[in-house]
């Protein structure tokens, strides 16, 4: 088993949650979302994020709007819908519970 595959699967598992969290307070376009993820050391490429954004939009969690740009073509800004905000709140609760459970399990294993 290759460690890189497992690490990639772990990152993929939380990517939706991270994208929704990036959009929690403000709308953003893809380059801003990617920059935020990159700053957090979650390296994601455009080929991964576009299908994910489309899936989240089709699920009713995101909407988008076009905005003119001073430095090129119009930009598509993504934002959370009301359903997306509720979904994010549920994911946050689940994430906190999961994080606590993993911390308990890994502490127990490391202290024995």
TrEMBL record:
GO biological process annotation, one example: regulation of DNA-templated transcription
SUPFAM superfamilies, sorted: Winged helix' DNA-binding domain
InterPro entries attached to this UniProt entry: ArsR-like_HTH, Metal_resp_DNA-bind_regulator, Tscrpt_reg_PadR_N, WH-like_DNA-bd_sf, WH_DNA-bd_sf
Residues annotated as transmembrane: none
Residue ranges of domain Transcription regulator PadR N-terminal in the record: 19-89
Domain of life from the UniProt record: Bacteria
Protein name: Transcriptional regulator, PadR family
């Amino acid at each position: 088993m290759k460690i890189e595959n497992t690490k990639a699967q772990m990152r993929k598992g939380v990517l939706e949650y991270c994208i929704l969290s990036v959009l929690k307070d403000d709308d953003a376009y893809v380059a801003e979302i990617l920059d935020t993820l990159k700053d957090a050391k979650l390296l994601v490429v455009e080929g991964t994020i576009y299908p994910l954004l489309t899936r989240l939009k089709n699920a009713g969690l995101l909407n988008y709007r076009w905005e003119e740009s001073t430095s090129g073509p119009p930009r598509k800004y993504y934002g959370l819908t009301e359903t997306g905000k509720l979904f994010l709140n549920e994911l946050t609760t689940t994430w906190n519970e999961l994080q606590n459970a993993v911390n308990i399990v890994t502490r127990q294993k490391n202290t024995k």
